Amino acid sequence: MTRVGGLAASVAPPRTVIARVESNRPLVPGIFEAVLALPSEWGPARPGQFVQLECPPPELFGLRRPFSIAGCRAVVGGVEVRIVYGAVGMRTHGLAQALPGVALRLTGPLGRPFDAMPERRAVLLGGGRGLAPVLMLAEHLGRNAHGAAILLHGARTASQLIPIPDPPCEVRPATDDGSAGFHGTLVDLLQSMSDAGELLEGRDALYACGPNRMLAALAAWSAERDLPCQVSLETHFGCGLGMCAGCAVPVKTTAGAEVSAFERFVFLCREGPVMDAQRIDWAGVHE
Ligand SMILES: Cc1cc2nc3c(=O)[nH]c(=O)nc-3n(C[C@H](O)[C@H](O)[C@H](O)COP(=O)(O)OP(=O)(O)OC[C@H]3O[C@@H](n4cnc5c(N)ncnc54)[C@H](O)[C@@H]3O)c2cc1C
Ligand code: FES
């Protein structure tokens, strides 16, 4: 994860700026896409990084909310950042009501991005709204000597699959109920690709974002194979800046070794959100 030369090698310093909502629309029931206009000095952001975004209604000491960056590009007069979010609670429901022109404070880009491995073919997995950061990664990767990236997108049912209008690589959908694409979870789809000889240990690398339960299953599956696996993990963030300890997640330690609490946990907002899947102690991660 700390190799020099990958996408993690250079990250822009975070800045707090005013983001103006350009558009904000539902993609599928309960999941929205917001395009935000930022000043030109912001970023650039790397796939896997996130922003801390103020969500309406305004609140004196309201905490901002973390969102993965789904896209970031320079446009005339500034930078355009895209997020894909689920309306799950008070702040994200407030955000879903934000009309074009609304100004929101935003800090970023933050966190450790995916560290692409150019010597391996990329297999990207996006579960539900976890599609956001891996789609941005797919757009950055293109094709390497080991072939084009392949993107697996899973949802509970067909109506929850997020449309990808101009995909940067092959996309394979999967649904838990079999109503579209492969019938099963994304880990089931990986297993079937492996059985069919489409996934090669020693050649491919996995990059994933989705519900923690999916990431835990993927970590266990990839641990049994020679498949490096990076995951973009979510937990409850307070500050997003390494100051509140709200985002601590447990990591594996050497069996029998005496370790302090500081060695048993990492602050996900600083050391993540992208982590090596095998470093996490999944038994201690909430669903
Ligand atoms: C690094 C990072 C990147 C994220 N990227 C995205 C993204 O791209 N799109 C997106 O929709 N969401 C993303 N999230 C989650 C998002 O920040 C939360 O859904 C949001 O903060 C909820 O705020 P709320 O006020 O609407 O809900 P709250 O009222 O705070 O909570 C509503 C419900 O959601 C649960 N919840 C809140 N936060 C989380 C969380 N992080 N993980 C699991 N359950 C949670 C609460 O337990 C509660 O049940 C990300 C989180 C992190 C840490
Ligand atoms: S969210 Fe505050 S320390 Fe990570």
Topology:
Layout: E1 15-28, E2 31-38, E3 50-53, E4 65-68, E5 71-75, E6 78-86, H1 90-96, E7 103-110, E8 121-127, H2 131-141, E9 143-144, E10 147-148, E11 150-155, E12 170-175, E13 182-183, H3 186-195, E14 204-209, H4 212-223, E15 229-232, E16 248-250, H5 261-264, E17 265-267, H6 268-271, E18 274-276
Parallel strand pairs: 8-11, 8-14, 11-12, 12-13, 14-15
Antiparallel strand pairs: 1-2, 1-7, 2-6, 3-4, 3-7, 5-6, 9-10, 15-18, 16-17
Can you walk me through this structure?
The protein is of the alpha/beta class and 287 residues long. The chain has a domain at 7-110: Translation factors (Elongation Factor Tu (Ef-tu), domain 3). The chain contains six helices and 18 strands. It has helices at residues 90-96, 131-141, 186-195, 212-223, 261-264, 268-271, and strands spanning 15-28, 31-38, 50-53, 65-68, 71-75, 78-86, 103-110, 121-127, 143-144, 147-148, 150-155, 170-175, 182-183, 204-209, 229-232, 248-250, 265-267, 274-276. The strands form four sheets. It has a seven-stranded antiparallel β-sheet. Strands 13-12-11-8-14-15-18 form a seven-stranded mixed β-sheet, with helices on both faces. Strands 9-10 form a two-stranded antiparallel ribbon. A hairpin with a 2-residue loop joins strand 5 (71-75) and strand 6. It is globular, with a radius of gyration of 18 Å. Residues 1-6 have low confidence and may be disordered. It binds flavin-adenine dinucleotide and FE2/S2 (inorganic) cluster. Residues 50, 65-68, 83-86, 88-92, 129, 132, 234-237, 273 line the site of flavin-adenine dinucleotide.
